Amino acid sequence: xxxxxxxxxxxxxxxxxLTGIHCYLGLHIVQRGVIFVDLSLAQVAAFGASxxxxxxxxxxxxxxxxxxxxxxxxxxxxxxxxxxxxKEVPQEAIIGITYAVFSAAAILVLDKAPHGHEALKTMxxxxxxxxxxxxxxxxxxxxxxxxxxxxxFRRRFLLISGNVDEARRAGVHVVFWDILFYVSLGFxxxxxxxxxxxxxxxxxxxVPAVCxxxxxNGIVRRLIYGWAIxxxxxxxxxVASAVWDLPTGASIVTVFGVILCLSWLASTGRGKG
Length: 273
Description:
The protein is mostly helical. It has eleven helices and no strands. Helices cover 84% and strands 0% of the residues. The longest helix has 42 residues, at 174-215.
């Protein structure tokens, strides 16, 4: 039992780190109405890692990270520009097409790589159970820098996410701040996908934010609710994984689904606080 608890400490710490930054960014994503942008950026990052894997680099190696960041940066710029231009084609369509194309491209690349199917599975469901403390510290430092940037410029980020037309009237350079937002999101997603996989990253970004929006109003209260939901889901998923010998990432995602259903039921029974 003691060995199991010790094994789960680093993954649990990683889950808390994911909860902290992902819930905040998730509130922005839901407000912007681009729910699948994180999933699309995650897949773009996964494609970069797939190329590195095909060229003989390990999934968690420095070249793999750099190539993932490069592709994610390009994707972030594309999404920022697509939002700023008035078009008949909605931004969500561009995001969906990007996800589909890069998903197919990653499959094609990994089909030619030795043990490519195992690598594809790892990118989807992650390997958070095998997280090490150095990786936890590395991820924490990256997210801390991004968190500080968002805290300093929080008014601009919140204004652009909440009311882009008002931001333009106020003279805010929307394209610049959008690029900065999507690039910071891309850094978070790229780092997260390496350890947690595409599905778990999507869940941490969207589910706590959606639950919080269903249950309460105000950015501070929603952050507190979201963090609490992420904390509970992480513990429950890790415990279920250990007790019933289940895949850790899939267990946490399933718990998130249950909590979302309960949050929706609770929101229909009373008004928001």
